[in-house]
Amino acid sequence: MPVDSLQLGALGKRPCPECSGDLEWNAAAQALKCPYCGTVVPSAPPLPGESSVIREHDLAEALRTVQPSRRGWGIERREVQCQSCHAISVFDENKAAEKCAFCGSPSVIPHAISGDSITPESLLPFKVSEVQCREALRKWYSTRWFAPNRLKRAALTDLLRGVYLPYWTFDARVDANWSADRGDHYYEGSGDKRVQKTRWRSVSGRIEHQFDDELIAGTVGVHAKLLAAIEPFPTTSDLQPYAPEFVRGWTVERYQVDLGRAATLSADDLNAQTRSLCSGQVGGDTQRNLQVDAEFSNRTFKHVLVPAWLATYTYGSKGFQVIANGYTGSVAGERPYSWVKIFFYVILPSLIVLLLWASLQGQ
Predict the structure, then answer these.
(1) pLDDT in tens, 127-148
(2) Is 179 helix (H, G, I), strand (E, B) or coil?
């Protein structure tokens, strides 16, 4: 049975053994740490009402009933929505949001907390500290050769924010029968008259495969191409049961890709992967007319949170994002181009070569 969110709100605080302040997850220490006195608690048992088991939910049942669990955040939270990028951020009750963490817009307004939202039951805690992330971002900026000098000199990492992003994970078993025409190349003739031909034959087979924790992003705040560049997040091995101290003090984005939409995206992805697996069994030099009859079973899902460090900035009139995987440290980002630099590095040398060539032709 899901634990009532009000009950968890009362039980969700884990006090510091020294000063009784609320402990928070510290990425640098990889442990719970008191933000007031600095006491580090390497490990702590689950609080009453918290689960130490990460559960998979039956997808078909969840889609029929809409809401499988309303576990609650474990602490009092409030939501604000950005009027520019439409991301919904979830904050501690006593934390104010002056700007959107995802696009930097100051246009954020209160958002009513939805009573039927699915709250996460597991998460991947931050492993990369802020100091480590700042160093990774400095290296990333230093390799953007055609970025404006003013951008490189700017203290962009001062805008760095740690955020938890919403994801869905899906498991499924597939049994698929396939058939195709397999083509094997052979050659006739010799020398310059050697001709490649293809011998075709019908082949068929069957595959069984278990998909585990296939990720579908629930975020709208981070640009999709950047997310793809910093994935994967190792949810199959390092996921932790949700506990409020992991998110206390951090910004959390509420999903806007709901379970139904995520399930559809996952089905499309699993079908494409299944087709690719079948194609890999055809063999030969080429193939055609691949037909796949796939049946999926044991489809389950989880709603999880994954960590990211996000820097947003505006250059000219355009906004840019730089994001780092908060667990692996992978960095991806957007940046403006200096057309002056491009001219001097690319166009100017070409013009010089062209002028030299013209000069030689005139002699």
Answers:
(1) 999 999 988 888 877 776 666 6
(2) strand
Strands, E assignment, 244-325: 251-254, 286-315, 318-325
Distance in angstroms (rounded) separating the CA atoms of residues 88 and 84 = 11
Q: Give residue 9's pLDDT.
A: 32
Distance from C-alpha of 250 to C-alpha of 89, rounded to nearest angstrom: 10
Task: Label the pairing between strands 286-315 and 251-254.
Answer: unpaired
Number of H helices and E strands in the chain, helices first, is 10, 15
Using DSSP, state whether 295 is helix, strand or coil.
strand
Alpha carbon separation from 11 to 22, 70, 125 (Å, rounded): 12, 16, 21
On whether the pTM is more than 0.85, the answer is no
pLDDT score for 187: 93
How many angstroms separate the CA atoms of 228 and 332, rounded? 9
Pairing between strand 77-82 and 40-41? unpaired
List the beta bridge partners of residue 297. Answer: 173
Residue 163 scores a pLDDT above 80: yes
Closest listed residue to residue 163, CA positions, set 84, 51, 246, 98: 246
**Percent of the chain at pLDDT above 70?**
71
C-alpha span between 169 and 215 (Å, rounded): 5
Per-residue pLDDT, averaged over 182-204, amounts to 93
State both tokens at 211: 């998909």
What CA–CA distance (Å, rounded) separates 126 from 239?
A: 11
Contact 73, 244 (CB under 8 A): yes
At 175, give phi and psi (nearest 5°).
-120, 120
Spell out the domain ranges in the chain: 5-349
Q: Which residues pair with 319 in a beta bridge?
A: 314
Cα–Cα distances in angstroms (integers) from residue 174 to residues 265, 278, 305, 317, in the given order: 16, 11, 26, 48
CB of 338 closer than 8 Å to CB of 148: yes
Residues 6+ apart with CB under 8 A from 29: 40
Distance between CA atoms of residues 171 and 217, nearest Å: 15
CA distance 164 to 90: 10
pLDDT value at residue 213: 94
Q: What is the DSSP letter of 192?
A: G
Distance of CA 158 to the CA centre of its chain: 23
